[in-house]
Amino acid sequence: MDKISMTRRAFVTSASAVGLVGASGLALPYYSRANQRPAFTHGIQSGDVDATSGMVWTRTDRPSRVMFEVSSTENFANAVRLAPLDTSPASDYTVKRLLTDLASDQDIFYRMVAADLADINAVSEPIVGRFRTAPASKRDIRFAWSGDTAGQGWGIDETGMKTYATIAKHTPDFFLHSGDTVYADGAMKDEVDLPNGDKWKNTVLIDEKRKVAETLDEYRAQWKYNMMDKNVLALSAICPTFYQWDDHEVLNNWSDSKDLTADDRYTEKSIHVLAARAARAFHEMTTIRYELSEPGRVYRKIAYGPLLDVFFLDMRSYRGPNGPDMQETMTPQSRILGEQQIKWLKRELANSNATWKIIAADMPLGLVVWNDGTKKVGAEAVSNGDNGPAKGRELEIADLLRYIKNAGISNTVWLTADVHYTAAHYYNPDKAQFEDFNAFWEFVSGPIHSGTFGPNGFDMTFGPELKFIKAPTAEQGQNLPPLAGLQFFGLVDIDGATEQLTVRLMDRDDSELYKVTLDPVRSA
After folding, report:
1. pLDDT digits (tens, 9 = 90+) for 291-348
2. In 96, 220, 436, 485, which residue has its Cα 20 to 30 A from 70's Cα atom?
3. How far apart (Å, rounded) are the C-alpha atoms in residues 240 and 167?
4. How far is the first Cα of the chain from the last one, in angstroms, to the nearest whole number?
5. φ and ψ at 22, to 5 degrees?
């Protein structure tokens, strides 16, 4: 290339050109002064992708005008330029938008460039991500799921959050994050002494992770911390994440009855104030779609072609207060999903024409999760631990399962995390106290990068049968660090030809622990 045909950018960034400009005493152009240009601080994300649209997200280091280009080719030939969007301190310099009018079953490349609002000629380096839209016809589908990121004080060590990198190797169509996407109540230390005499070192740590989150900025920082991990960033750049939340986005086991009076970690004692700040941060920092009819809503359906619909539940926002959970009639206090969400779920399940209906639940149905784990009292999840007829929150689930049976809704599979181990459960009405439902599977997988716990006991109201489990042994104890290897995720493959659904339970070293293939029930 001769000097005439070299671009100006190639010239000023070459070693000889920099030397020449420096020797001449001339000032470098703005775009060659990295510290005076805007920068993208926490990578790029996509999410909630369907056949014709998908959310994208990024964050800048200052008030910026973010320009967007969308293309079906990696070289951005014939790219479509969209109207720019501005970032501001009001949303912590984050920006997200819904890309629309996309072709189905198509690789989509999106590129962003930021210009400093105070000096519009100071422009950032571009940042690029990609995803694939859902198919309009039958094809193979693969997705991963897990939950529980950076909990119990186990943060970013020298290895990083390895399970994210392991998932990326499988090039899933999307990653379903089943809740506890952050641990806002889990203060971290630089080092943790391990029982064998070794030390866990959080080699990356920020001040906002050294205490529980209370302010809006501290809640925002929970996600920013996770996005400092190289493996999280790498997966987000190539794979959409479908988010739901559970309790640790706010604080452990929160409901309206949460009393922080005696918790010295918190100066803000109102659970409602904390939940409001956490919810705002959750929507600002993730690619979850906005629902105009209820801004801030988490439950939703993502249609992913003729073979798959995914129904995301919110088992946190509409629940009654945590307590004994032994009510014999369904009331607002005994609900976990809430009347409006149940009506929505029944309607959307009945209207679904997809072969498989994945119900993404942030808590398991038949495992006993105590509100007070030390005393083993109070219900935190669905089950109340009495092994009897449906009571309390079980009433709402029993009503849903009965409806699914009576409406002839087939091929429902439940996916969840929360309990920090991996398992496969088969719910058998022949073994249940409440029998008016069709048998179904529930698969548990997690943590993706947190302490490993369990196993939990069963409540037999819905007749769960344990088909597989991988959890700490009594000798290993509880709250095992990620380096112990008991970090888990699940892979779901749907065959485009046979429509069979295969579930594999995996560990962070990519070992296959369990596999089962389910045949679809065909309509008569």
Report:
1. 999 999 999 999 999 999 999 999 999 999 999 999 999 999 999 999 999 999 999 9
2. 220
3. 12
4. 68
5. -65, -40
Distance CA 283, CA 206 (A): 21
- The token pair at 353 is 């024409």
DSSP per-residue codes, 202-233? -SB--GGGSS---SHHHHHHHHHHHTTSHHHH
**CA-to-CA distance for 321 and 331, rounded, in angstroms?**
11
Spatial distance between the Cα atoms of 259 and 266, rounded to a whole number of angstroms: 11
Longest dimension (CA), the chain: 86
User: Which residues 6+ apart lie within 8 Å of 452 measured at CB?
Assistant: 420, 421, 471, 472, 478, 479, 480, 484, 486, 487
Residues in the chain: 524
Helix ranges restricted to H, 88-242: 162-168, 216-226, 230-238
Helices then strands, counting H and E runs in the chain, come out as 8, 25
> Nearest-5° angle of CA 341, CA 344, CA 349?
125
The Cα–Cα gap between 85 and 55 comes to 14
Instruction: Encode pLDDT of 120-171 as tens digits.
Output: 999 999 999 999 999 999 999 999 999 999 999 999 999 999 999 999 999 9
Beta strands in 213-365 (DSSP E): 241-243, 300-303, 308-312, 356-360
User: Which residues touch 209 (CB under 8 Å, ≥6 apart)?
Assistant: 155, 187, 188, 221, 222, 225
Q: What share of the chain is helix, strand, coil (3-state, %, to 5)?
A: 20, 30, 50
CA torsion sign, 314 to 317 to 318 to 321?
positive
- Closest by Cα among 446, 463, 441, 466 to 357: 441
